[in-house]
Amino acid sequence: MQSIAALPLHSRHAVVTGAGRGMGACIAAALARRGAAVSLLGRTAATLADSAERLRSAGAERVHVQVADVGDEAVLTQALAACRAALGPVTILVNNAGIAPSAPFLKSDAALWQRVLDVDLLGAVHATRATLPDMLAAQWGRVVNIASTAGLTGMAYVSAYCAAKHALIGFTRALAMETARKGVTVNAVCPGYTDTDIVGDALANIAAKTGRSRDEALASLVAHNPQGRLVDPEEVAETVAWLCSDAAISVTGQSIVLAGGELMP
Ligand code: NAP
Fold first, then answer.
1. What ligand 1 atom has the least distance to the C-alpha of 198?
2. pLDDT at 5
3. Is 161 a residue of the active site?
4. 59: left (phi > 0), else alpha (psi -120 to 50), else beta?
5. For ligand 1, mutation pick of 16, 39, 40, 43 (most atoms within 8 Å of CB)
6. pLDDT of res. 4
7. Residue 255 contacts residue 265 (beta carbons within 8 Å)
8. 92 is in which domain, residue-wise?
9. What is the pLDDT of residues 48-94, one digit of tens each?
10. Is residue 122 part of a domain?
11. Pocket lined around ligand 1, Cβ cut-off 6 Å
12. Does 126 share its domain with 200?
């Protein structure tokens, strides 16, 4: 087996938010496979512990678990300081934690909007503010924001989510310009419907509201994707890992769509 010190991300410390399950767990594993020290940050201690155990079983040695709500700036900032204390300066940040509550616009009240903006947009902004100084000091850094096709086009019944993801892409582009000459790239990854709990919840919601079966609801979702399938979270993880490689230094300010051709921006 190749020694960990020979792996391409061995000298990097990656923080992945929402790393207990779904795409975040896959992303953390993909970065650990490339040798990065990985901090798994999220809301739920039990899922984070399971995710950490899977990484350690696969041979990862430097894994830190940090419970925090990314929607609470003070808690998040303290949590990132604890990650840094555990595994050193943070040079990769993957802002993955997200929520996607659905409701018609007139039923999306101010509290729903505030929560979605706090988690899906400001969580990424505050985490970036806390970790960017380490990247600038190292003259090497990677910020990857997990946005969505909903960040590039309109979608019914998720107005707050769409607005937050559009804003996340705007933030990505602006920060990429500020850091372009500093060794730091900032990109967004925009998956279409991906096979995780968020989609499982959406299918249950569609089935409950429309009386359709789960398979019919799934067919209606994959109909948006010209390939006629859900995206696999491992595909998202591999894209993030590539963005974190030295080979991707020229790629910044981009929104990389993984949706089987659904969008061609
Ligand atoms: P998921 O399976 O529901 O996982 C979401 C993760 O985010 C969980 O680990 C969750 O932690 C964490 N999280 C949610 N709110 C948080 C908070 N306030 N603080 C900390 N962690 C929080 O969803 P997913 O599909 O993997 O989604 C990951 C990202 O991809 C999200 O940003 C989502 O918007 C985006 N995305 C998803 C799809 C899709 O179709 N699945 C498509 C495009 C974009 P807990 O375990 O504690 O709940």
1. 3
2. 86
3. yes
4. left
5. 43
6. 80
7. yes
8. 7-192+232-258
9. 999 999 999 999 999 999 999 999 999 999 999 999 999 999 999 99
10. yes
11. 17-18, 20-24, 42-44, 47, 69-71, 96-100, 119, 146, 148, 191, 193-194, 196-199
12. no
